[in-house]
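One-letter codes give the sequence; backbone shape is given numerically. An example follows:

. . .
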Amino acid sequence: MNNSDIILDNVSFEIKKGDFLGIIGPNGAGKTTLFKCMLGLNKDYSGEIKIFNKEIKKESKEIYKKIGYIPQSNNLDTRFPATVKEVIHLGSIGKKTSREKINELVKLTGISEYMDKRIGDLSGGQQQRVMITKALIHEPELLILDEPATAIDTNILRVFYKLLTKLNKEKKITIIWSSHDLDAVNLLSNKIACIYKKLLFHGRSEEFFSDENNLKKFSESSMHIHIKNHHH
C-alpha cells in the first residue's frame, strides 16, 4: 500500500462508557472509513480496535449485538413497499421483542403515528427516526451515527438532537456520531475527535472549542480538501 493510499494513519483514542463523542473533519477525512473499521465492514487495517474490551477482528459477533448503526442516509426510494412497522422489526436480529418494548421505543422516537405508513412516503427526518428506532430494538449499548442530519430539514433538527441527548442521558447509551455542524457537535457532544487522515485532536469539547488553534486546524483541513477537489 502506497502512502497516498492510506486513508487513516495512526488514529488512536479511547471512548468511555456514557460518552457522546462527536467526530469532525472535512469530506474525505476518513470518518466513514473509521466507522466501517469499527463495524468490521473494513478489515484492511493494521493495529487493533477494541469495543467493550473485545478485539473486533476476533469477537465481532458478540460485539455487534451491542451496537446500533445508522449509516449516512439518503432518502429511500418512494416506491419502497415496506411499512414503518416492518422496517422496525428488521432490527430485532432474531431476538423476540415485546409489543410493550416496541411501543415504548416508538413513543420515545416520536413515530407512533407513522407505524402503518410506507417508509418511502416519509420525510428524511421521519425516516431517520425510524432508522434510529430500528437500531434501538435490540437494546444496544453503543450507537454509531454517520452524518445523521444530512437528510433532515433544519426546522426538525432540534427535535432530532433532543432525541439523541435523551438516548445518551436517560437511556445511558454511548453515542459516536460524525457531523459537519460544529454548533450541534459543540452543543451535544462531551468529547470531540477531529480527524483529517490523522487524529488532529481528541478530548473534551470545551477544550476544542475554546482553543482558536484547534478551530484553525479544522478550517485549514477543510480548505485543503476543497482546494484539492477544485483541481480535479
